[in-house]
């Protein structure tokens, strides 16, 4: 468990957020999703349908699987078991991993609607399919690994994963709603490419 003061938390978010946004943009540009995950999915779905398939996967993950985990946590953690007549009343009494199981479900609930909207708006506004597939698959994968990271209390890792998932939603909205954004996005990718090239070509010597 890592504790932050208000100032250090704000500083961490200011530093971490742009890094996470650049990370997902870099992953999209490197075609990792296209090379490894997309061929598998194309065995079962048409490529144009994959963003909507990801909506279905996230829906099941959020409203079925993490919901089930949350109910189990409450049943185990409360003295008298799960009270279906007042299911939200005793959540605040849970501690440790059981409390984090409930919290992971709540985080999933908070973020899923924005992702659903982003995919739908991006499709309606004819965002190029390569961006819709890449970012929707990345979001789904990140959201699914966020839950175990949360439950197991890998707090820094799950915070990074959470911001990266949010960035996928934000990228989709940006492509859909900001005129000419693809050109700006290409400029961002060029900067990342240059930085990677400089890093790869640099040699460090110590006398």
Automatic annotation (TrEMBL):
Q: What's any one GO cellular component for it?
A: membrane
* SUPFAM superfamilies found in the cross-reference section: MAPEG domain-like (SSF161084)
Q: Which InterPro entries match?
A: MAPEG-like_dom_sf, Membr-assoc_MAPEG
| Entry keyword Transmembrane | yes
* Annotated Gene3D superfamilies: Membrane associated eicosanoid/glutathione metabolism-like domain
Query: Which cellular compartments is it found in?
Result: Membrane
- Please provide an example of a Pfam family that matches this protein in its UniProt record: MAPEG
Entry keywords, A to Z: Membrane, Transmembrane, Transmembrane helix
> Does Transmembrane helix show up as a keyword for this record?
yes
Organism superkingdom: Eukaryota
Q: Where are the transmembrane segments?
A: 52-76, 159-178
Q: Which PANTHER family match?
A: BLR7753 PROTEIN (PTHR35371:SF1), INNER MEMBRANE PROTEIN (PTHR35371)
What protein does this entry describe?
Answer: MAPEG family protein
What organism does this protein naturally occur in? Gigaspora margarita
